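Holo prediction. Input below; ligand is phosphoenolpyruvate.
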Amino acid sequence: MIGRGEGRGKAFPKGRDKPRNHQFVGGDFRMRMLLAGNWKMNGLKTALAEIRALKRGLVDETARADVLVCPPATLIMEAAKAAEGSPIAIGGQDCHALASGAYTGDVSAEMLRDAGATAVILGHSERRQYHGETNPIVAGKMKAARRAGLMAILCVGESDKEREAGHAIRVVAQQLEASIPPELGASDLTIAYEPIWAIGTGKTPTTADIGEMHAAIRAMLGKRFSAGGETIRVLYGGSVKPDNAAEILAVPNVDGALVGGASLKAADFLAIIRAAPRR
Ligand code: PEP
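Structure of the complex:
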């Protein structure tokens, strides 16, 4: 299950509700990978067939990784029903900071939860770019996710210009610093590093660049959450496909992937899930 509290690790009291996404390996632990699909504004009711196909394909894969599908809000309730009895969790792609009110067209974290979601993607670069979402706005939504009991997947990432100027790590550090409100704990949080220039473009950073950024994010989380920082999953996102997934998922400090286009077809998403190393 994906949900708030699933990210707790070493700091979590012994014997109590051991978190499912951690495997103890030789006295240490490593997080089970999370493969999250972001359908964006794609999918009519007919797309629920992809959830059912994913469910069939995952029959033998339960121990390999956690799987999350984030369909458009209109499909969450039906997607949650279609995923019942499977390891697939359902998430939203955005939420409002408030629980209810006169905000035409918006959806609250509580509404997502009520519809069957256990997670929500926040601060995606398309929300930042097309809806003017700033770090403080994202921070308000992060608080809402916590309030509703949803695991927040916080997206961070630099533009091509910022990378070329050598500012990628600084930009991501600022986004993390300003988008995570003080009341959030490590167990409320997953990070998705998504270089903007890699999203939907077919371009990916080198594995060395991914490794460098993920190590930097891990260090930043350590400063912020002490030991809890080790328990936060850091996903990579940006043009992950069946043919590059194994290489990307093998990079140290990569704890899974946020997948856009290749999550729309169950066969492709399954191939990516199967590329995840068992932990
Ligand atoms: C995304 O939208 O989060 C994403 C990573 O998209 P794609 O995989 O299509 O690049």
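Residues 66-97+105-199+226-238 form a domain with the TIM Barrel fold (CATH 3.20.20.70). That is the main takeaway for now.
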